[in-house]
TrEMBL record:
It comes from Gossypium laxum. PANTHER family: AMINOTRANSFERASE-LIKE PLANT MOBILE DOMAIN-CONTAINING PROTEIN, PROTEIN, PUTATIVE-RELATED. This is DUF7745 domain-containing protein. InterPro entries: DUF7745. Residues 1-251 form the DUF7745 domain. It holds the Pfam family DUF7745.
Length: 264
């Protein structure tokens, strides 16, 4: 979790589900890599509705994985007359470039494997958080590096806890309410230097924190897996442990020090 001065915070599954407005039917089915899946080329042929020759000519090898350049997907979006196909290709691009970035300007094969399962009711949230936590953990363990994850969602989550609001909008109970849309329209200061941010975060106090995000409607909490008081999050490139019991204040619950034996 993040530690800012006296404060511990962590993005939770429930918060990201609320931000992304995942339908109820899509909340409980977690992604895991399937066996005997179609090849990357075959999956791209299916979603892009293009020939094997066209797809194969545009698939690149980046390191140990295959990927397709965004410019090829962009050209298809602009050329396609079919609106549904445009939306599908654009959605795949968002998943590959924003939610699960890896090689800059490319959509990775591993992302395609997850995207292919969305219509089967799989939720992307645990995988998004796994990618976020793994990248932050790598930066922290080495003392350097660049965060490679969904920075946009993390920034929205960050703002939701560090800027107090006087009252809650009744619109959070509307089925058409979107916290992302509302937060995107909220003016933010952009003239704070990195040094000033470091000073603010190192000295932040409990009283300045909005512990429960105002757009989070109370509900069930995923906090354990069988006998363990933590949850393994499966991502597209690996797994990591997740312990929301460390931040019960984000659910307006009484905080205590949980047992995290075995948490990696």
């Amino acid at each position: 979790c993040f530690t800012f001065g006296e404060v511990d915070l962590v993005p939770t599954i429930e918060e990201y589900i609320a931000l992304l407005r995942c339908p109820k039917i899509q909340v409980d089915k977690v992604y895991s890599k399937a066996v005997n899946v179609s090849t990357f080329v075959k999956k791209l042929m299916n979603i892009l509705a293009m020939s094997e020759q066209w797809v194969s000519a545009r698939v690149n090898q980046k390191g140990d994985s295959k990927c397709i350049p965004w410019r090829s997907l962009r050209d298809l979006i602009l050329a396609r007359p079919d609106t549904k196909k445009k939306v599908d290709i654009f959605a795949l691009s968002i998943y590959g470039l924003m939610l699960f970035p890896r090689a800059l300007g490319y959509v990775d094969e591993a992302v395609m494997n997850l995207f292919d399962r969305l219509d089967k009711g799989v939720t992307p949230v645990p995988a998004i958080l796994a990618k976020t936590f793994r990248s932050l953990s790598a930066c922290r363990s080495t003392g350097e590096g660049r965060f490679i994850g969904c920075a946009q969602l993390l920034l929205v989550w960050f703002h939701s806890h560090l800027w107090k609001v006087d009252k809650v909008s009744y619109q959070i109970f509307s089925k058409n309410y979107s916290p992302l849309r509302e937060l995107a329209a909220t003016p933010r200061r952009d003239n704070i230097t990195m040094e000033k941010w470091m000073e603010i975060l190192q000295n932040i106090k409990d009283k300045y924190i909005e512990w429960k995000a105002l757009w989070l409607v109370p509900g069930e909490i995923l906090y354990r897996c069988e006998d363990f008081d933590w949850v393994p999050l499966l991502g597209v490139w690996g797994a990591i442990g997740y312990a929301p019991l460390l931040v019960l204040k984000q659910y307006r619950s009484r905080q205590f020090v949980p047992v995290t034996q075995g948490l990696a």
